[in-house]
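testing teh design pipeline on a random one, pls ignore if ur not involved
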């Protein structure tokens, strides 16, 4: 199991353009769809716990590793998610500054924003599909999204409202 966790998360780490959130669709595919280690609802709950806890966004990976192989699994999954991407970032950063004026660098830099935005949007879609298992959760998600998009409300108010609404329908 430890080798499987390391292999999965090491590969996924190299896709983490914009952070771990951008890899959620692939993480979900690996742990929910392909390996059936957990249900979509369990995955969403682990993600929520990881986001609520202080620390880096990759805590969901740590929680998946812990769930599947205990403390050793948590350590292996976390380092597998951090090391390949970290080493690649160190290598790229050495050349990134050196070729500051290169045309290819400007093209890559301009392309990263829409790619990252698309990956994060895909992650949001995966989480919404997994969490919204009935009409009330779909309505809460839709109202929260519209309110965030169309008003200047602080997101904490939306979280509080969603929490209250969730408690009322539970």
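output:
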């Amino acid at each position: 199991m430890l080798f499987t966790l390391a292999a999965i998360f090491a590969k996924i780490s190299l896709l983490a353009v914009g952070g771990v959130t951008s890899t959620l669709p692939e993480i979900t595919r690996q742990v929910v769809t392909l390996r059936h280690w957990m249900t979509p609802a369990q995955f969403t709950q682990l993600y929520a716990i990881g986001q609520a806890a202080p620390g880096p966004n990759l805590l969901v990976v740590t929680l998946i590793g812990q769930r599947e192989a205990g403390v050793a699994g948590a350590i292996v999954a976390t380092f597998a998610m951090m090391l390949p991407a970290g080493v690649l970032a160190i290598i790229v950063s050495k050349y990134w500054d050196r070729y500051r004026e290169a045309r290819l660098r400007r093209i890559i830099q301009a392309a990263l924003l829409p790619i990252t935005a698309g990956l994060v949007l895909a992650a949001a879609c995966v989480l919404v599909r997994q969490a919204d298992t009935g009409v009330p959760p779909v309505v809460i998600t839709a109202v929260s999204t519209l309110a965030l998009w169309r008003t200047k409300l602080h997101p904490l108010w939306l979280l509080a409202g969603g929490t209250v609404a969730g408690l009322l329908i539970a």
